[in-house]
Amino acid sequence: MTNVQAIAIHDLEHSIGETEVLRIPELVINAGEMVCLQGGNGSGKTTLLRALMGLVRCNSGDVMVLGNDMRKIGTSVVEKLRADSIGFIFQHYRLVPYLSAFDNILLPCYFSAKRQYEAERKSETAAGDAIRLIRRLSLSDPSRLSKNASQYSAGQQQRFAIARALIGKPDMVLADEPASAMDCRGKKAVYQLLQEECRANGATLICTTHDENGIDGFDRYVDMDSLNLARERENRWSF
Amino acid sequence: MVILKIICRSFGQRAGRSTISILALALSIALLLVISHIHEAVRSYARQVSSGADLIVGAPSQPVHLALYSLFRIGPPPPVLPWNIYEEIAGMEDVEWAAPVSTNESHRGYTVTGSTAHYMETLQLKALNFIDTSGSGTAFRNDRSAFIGANLAAHYQPGETLTIANGFSPSLKDEYQTPFVIQGVLMETGTLLDSNILVPIEGLRKIRKAHGITTDYLNFIMIKLRHRHSLFKVQQELKSTLNTPLEVVIPAFELEKLGHYQRMLNNVFMAMSFIIGVLSLMMMYFNLSAGFAERKQEVELLRMVGASPWQLAGLTLAEPMLQILVALCSGVIVYKISTLFVGSWIPVVSSITLPFEQLVWLLSLFLLGFLVACLPAWRMYGFSRRT
Question: What ipTM was reported for this prediction?
């Protein structure tokens, strides 16, 4: 593990209207580190990930992602950063319903030359890399990926979303409850794949989950209730 | 390439709703073109026919009525004129030729028109199917030749004979004894002339005499002048110097008066078709706006994987533009097929090509469509920038 910082957050504050949703004094995640953010519903996990993606512009504080100050960089740089360096897994997987599963997995390669190049370097072709990833996600017949994404089960769709985030060797993978639609065996396979791929590529992995048990293999587990002071204050107020 | 794939698949996803908008737009485009085409064809035919004769002379009646009856057989026949009027007119120095026309005989309910080759020439009547031995499709072979209109072609063949009678509800004693021989079948005109039998006026006069009718009568006379600048002079002369009171009309003037109403009617139809087009564009816009909410997540995802706001705006623009293009092409195809069909019934319709100015309607619909498509694309651009 290197000591280069992939993510550095200082005095981050974000509110939606009157409600303070994020207040994180400090969070540093090193490049190549694998971190699991644990917390219940409304603890700010998803908002934090969206802030790291540049989807949410926070009110104050510093957010550095892969050396970029997310509060200051322009839209086009954020676009390029996301396309080339970040793989994102949405909580509800979000596949383009009318594209085939295969096209959904390959989407990042269509928009980023870097990820296309990396996928081809790994498996000769980007399609080959997509099949390699899908095989690793215990899909029974990876050759049958031509159906529209919406025609697969929730668990299968989540697997495609994971493969989409991993393809083309991104520098960082952000996963918002990546195994929420899976059974115990599937969950284990997903976390294992994410960890193995990120470890092999030297990528930083940040996963969020509300599961307290059965998630092994991460370098660090961060409790959102203790990280996000806004949540703590909200809890205190509710008593 | 993936953008193209997204456009096509997304288009397919909304195919049901899109099809209705496309059909409505295609229909309005086809209507616009067909109406313009028919308007232009009728105008061009009227212009050609009216330019064949400089003046039309008839018994005193409404000038428009005289022009419409003599050129298109619209309305009842005008009152009769004595034959000597024709002789006096034909003898005038300024007159190049005069064609007397009589429509007082019939054959089994079909009007028999007695006239000359000049009349056929003026109305652009031509036989497609005729006996060519010592005859032609545009002139009578002899005094007993007859041309039949296209509507009679199913019942008669060239070479067959037909007898005619005086008046339209003749008794046996009104039947003329000498028959006419059918020389040919006239090309379809789309007017009532298609139900006419055309015979030479000289032959008709002889048969009338043989039947004991001593006074020749005419319904109108068409006149071609040697010089067009003597038009008003001759018109005035005919009205004032001859003993019989006459109506002398300049067909081009009378048709121009009607042209004003025709244009008005045409504009109303055009406006209606244009409104249908605008409504279908609005339908297209509402479809797009309704789909906008459900596409937000899709857009967020595409932004995540690197699609730029311009690409997404282009994607949103491309879909309605594709619909408009499909509608335009379908509309033009429907128009072409319609004119083929209409042209087979009314030949004058197929004889013209639509002037370029009429395509301004199409262009304005396309531009309007482009503006309508730009609105959701602009919203998409704004949304993508904020994502």
Answer: 0.79
